[in-house]
């Protein structure tokens, strides 16, 4: 990401406004979640106090071979750790809590979230062997004081239980951060979004609104979660064999709906996929999932139960390798899918996952299964507000300033356009980039520089140690392969002991490329003969010459450029 942002205005040339002078400015610094889907993390700072909204991760794309996870760069927080008063978590999705195990290794501050959110965080911290974290469970309507910030948690609707928005009262005015939300008037938990509380703050005066932009390009309203219940009823009614439903493990409401329909049709429930099993257990213990224990069975017992009495709820709705559905489709699971099974993929493809999802669907068809997926049928509804619900949020809160968050660039700009249509002046809207320092006072908003920000890649136990050079090498290896020349030299004289040995991995198959390999060996052997007459200080230059000459030779022969590694072994 660049280090600048645009102050949104469609009526005149975009530019920065000068803020009026005051001793302290309210600062909003997105460390993630703008210009991207996921990795949500926002710093709110005033004077000597900082609170952080969410601390999420994002999963790597195809351009990051070998990377497990990607988290925000928290360098700015590390430099200002003495100001940090706490983390405010809006809900328990990975893109909002996934980076907390890495953050809490460095910061000993309280973390606030609702019951399910804190339970999921506690589970993640336990897996990471992080003890003594200060997790504080709150309920919607609760208020906490953190330094100069007074924070109220407001009930919202989303695709996971316990989602809240934040009203953060600061010395210069009130910020509303919606978190991920939609306006669901008939939610499955019977507790709709607290419209009245948003209106309360709107009547008092909201300095700035930070609102979810994920569905800002979609017209109308997002459907209620209840709407897809009829679809599940239909497919369970006509299913003759097993029913396997893949969905997001965190979508507790969806899991409850599936279980209710399955039990009503005389089926038992089997959870598959590590995250599905873990979250279902936590949600059941907290009372968010209500499934009779006798209706939940382990996969080993399914062989003794007739297929028409089985429902499997699994991970893998995004085609993730090693997920439950992926392994079932590839016959590498104890429960393999076959003819007579009905598979319902109850999720829409996250951008970038379309190919993986399509591949799994094709494999399921080839196994003989009947597959139901979005948009073939109404088997999924989003947890994010569409344009009419976003308009309602503006109507309720009446913000002076607006900062769209949680979305790719196109989502942010379309949300900004919508805000201007709702009466927010273009000069009062900031479309931010990661790391921008947005300064506010009662009368103005501007971007004033940036801080170190971006992404840290997680590879096993390595945090941030894998950089662009390593990723480039991995991509080169995966695309072009490796070509190694092993050179044996006498330690004292530098004389060649034997002709060079050639090793190829992922570039050419040696047995089918004997001529190329022999010519490469002759080339390396000829160049390596110079070691004997050269001073040891010149060996590095000769080695580089071998690499360069090999690269040119192989490209001329194959039009490909593998990673070339000359290895010198000195023997007595």
What overall form do the CA principal axes indicate? globular
Residue share in helices? 25-40%
Number of helix segments? 15
Based on helices, strands and strand pairing, what is the structural class?
alpha/beta
β content, as a range? 15-25%
Supply database-style keywords.
27 strands; globular; alpha/beta; 572 residues; eight-stranded mixed sheet; six-stranded mixed sheet
Describe the fold and architecture.
The chain has an eight-stranded mixed sheet with strand order 8-7-6-4-3-2-21-22. The chain has 572 residues and is an alpha/beta fold. It contains 15 helices and 27 strands. The chain is globular and about 85 Å long.
Q: What can be said about this structure in brief?
A:
By secondary structure, this protein is of the alpha/beta class.
Spell out the blueprint of helices and strands.
Layout: E1 6-8, E2 26-32, E3 41-46, E4 49-53, E5 69-72, H1 75-79, E6 84-88, H2 94-97, H3 100-103, E7 111-113, H4 115-127, E8 135-137, E9 143-146, E10 149-155, E11 164-170, E12 173-177, H5 195-204, E13 206-212, H6 229-238, E14 243-246, H7 252-264, E15 268-272, H8 274-286, E16 310-314, H9 324-329, E17 342-345, H10 354-366, E18 370-373, H11 387-397, E19 399-405, H12 409-421, E20 429-431, E21 436-440, E22 445-450, E23 455-459, E24 462-463, H13 468-480, E25 482-490, E26 501-505, H14 514-528, H15 539-558, E27 563-571
Parallel strand pairs: 4-6, 6-7, 7-8, 12-13, 13-19, 14-16, 14-17, 15-16, 17-18, 25-27
Antiparallel strand pairs: 1-20, 2-3, 2-21, 3-4, 5-23, 9-10, 10-11, 11-12, 21-22, 23-24, 25-26
């Amino acid at each position: 990401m660049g280090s600048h942002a645009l102050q949104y205005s469609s009526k005149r040339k975009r530019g920065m406004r000068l803020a009026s002078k005051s001793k302290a400015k309210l600062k909003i610094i997105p460390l993630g979640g703008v210009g991207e889907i996921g990795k949500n993390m926002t710093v709110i700072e005033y004077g000597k106090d900082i609170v952080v909204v969410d601390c999420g991760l994002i999963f790597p794309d195809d351009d990051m071979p070998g990377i497990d996870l990607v988290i925000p760069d928290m360098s700015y927080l590390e430099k200002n750790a003495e100001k940090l008063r706490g983390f405010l978590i809006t809900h328990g999705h990975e893109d909002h809590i996934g980076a907390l195990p890495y953050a809490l290794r460095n910061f000993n501050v309280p973390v606030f979230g609702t019951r399910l959110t804190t339970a999921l965080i506690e589970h993640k911290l336990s897996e990471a062997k992080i003890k003594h974290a200060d997790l504080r469970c709150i309920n919607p309507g609760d208020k906490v004081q953190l330094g100069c910030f007074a924070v109220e948690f407001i009930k919202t609707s989303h695709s996971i239980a316990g989602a809240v928005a934040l009203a953060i009262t600061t010395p210069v005015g009130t910020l509303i951060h919606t978190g991920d939300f939609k306006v669901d008037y008939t939610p499955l938990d019977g507790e709709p979004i607290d419209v009245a509380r948003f209106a309360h703050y709107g009547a008092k005066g909201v300095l700035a609104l930070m609102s979810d932009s994920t569905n800002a390009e979609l017209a109308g309203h997002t459907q209620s979660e209840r709407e897809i219940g009829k679809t599940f009823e239909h497919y369970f009614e006509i299913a003759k064999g097993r029913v396997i439903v893949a969905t997001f493990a965190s979508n507790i409401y969806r899991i409850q709906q599936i279980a209710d329909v399955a039990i009503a049709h005389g089926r038992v429930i089997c959870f598959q996929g590590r995250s599905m099993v873990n979250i279902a257990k936590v949600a059941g213990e907290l009372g968010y999932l209500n499934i009779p224990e006798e209706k939940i069975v382990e996969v080993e017992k399914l062989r003794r139960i007739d297929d028409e009495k089985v429902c499997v709820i699994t991970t893998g709705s995004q085609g993730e390798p090693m997920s439950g559905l992926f392994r079932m489709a590839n016959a590498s699971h104890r429960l393999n899918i076959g003819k007579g099974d009905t598979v319902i993929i109850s999720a829409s493809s996250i951008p970038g996952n379309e190919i993986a999802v399509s591949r799994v669907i094709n494999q399921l068809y080839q196994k003989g299964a009947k597959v139901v997926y979005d948009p073939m049928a109404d088997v999924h509804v989003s947890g994010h507000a569409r344009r009419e619900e976003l308009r309602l949020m503006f109507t309720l809160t009446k913000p002076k300033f607006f900062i769209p968050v949680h979305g790719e660039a196109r989502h942010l700009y379309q949300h900004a356009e919508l805000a201007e249509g709702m009466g927010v002046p273009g000069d009062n809207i900031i479309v931010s980039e990661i790391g921008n320092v947005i300064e506010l006072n009662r009368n103005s908003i501007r971007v004033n520089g940036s801080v170190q920000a971006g992404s840290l890649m997680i590879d096993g136990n390595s945090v941030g140690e894998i950089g662009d050079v390593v990723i480039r090498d991995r991509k080169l290896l995966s695309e072009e392969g490796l070509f190694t020349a092993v050179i044996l030299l006498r330690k004292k004289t530098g004389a060649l002991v034997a002709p060079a040995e050639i090793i190829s991995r992922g570039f050419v198959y040696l047995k089918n490329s004997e001529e190329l390999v022999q010519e490469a060996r002759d080339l390396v052997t000829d160049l390596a003969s110079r070691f004997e007459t050269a001073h040891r200080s010149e060996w590095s230059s000769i080695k580089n010459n071998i690499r360069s000459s090999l690269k040119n030779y192989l490209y001329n022969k194959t039009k490909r450029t593998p990673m070339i590694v000359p290895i010198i072994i000195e023997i007595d």
